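Run log // design_07
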């Protein structure tokens, strides 16, 4: 299975845009399935160990450095984040991506204190914007 096929397959399971998922892998790890950050984030989607432990059982994944498993865990987590953000009246993809990158609790605190998109730390806005801009450059398959 190619990466394109993998992203298409996994994204279809969670009604996500496969281009966004692929762009996120590019931004997170440069498509390095063995990437390991100083914070312990693992694999293509740079899934944190706590996120892995919580969400890997939901998809039956056991190896965070297996590309398909890593993307599945990221996708099920993104689906959860999307639902959480939609409940707060913020269904846009940008908010789901910021929650993935910054943490849902930190983002929740920020929003509870009256924070808006333009008030986000620049690195958080840039993360989401870079992914969505990159996704737009990927061709239809």
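design_07 sequence
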């Amino acid at each position: 299975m190619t990466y394109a096929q993998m992203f298409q397959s996994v994204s279809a399971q969670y009604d996500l845009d496969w281009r966004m998922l692929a762009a996120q892998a590019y931004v997170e790890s440069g498509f390095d399935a063995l990437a390991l950050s100083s914070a312990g984030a693992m694999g293509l989607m740079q899934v944190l160990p706590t996120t892995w432990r919580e969400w890997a059982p939901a998809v039956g994944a056991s190896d965070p450095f297996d590309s398909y498993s890593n993307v599945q865990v990221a996708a099920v987590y993104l689906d959860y984040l999307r639902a959480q953000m939609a409940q707060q009246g913020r269904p846009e993809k940008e908010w789901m991506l910021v929650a993935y990158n910054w943490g849902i609790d930190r983002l929740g605190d920020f929003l509870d204190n009256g924070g808006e998109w333009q008030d986000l730390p620049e690195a958080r806005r840039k993360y989401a914007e870079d992914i969505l801009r990159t996704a737009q450059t990927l061709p239809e398959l």
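Residues 1 and 45 are 17 Å apart (CA to CA).
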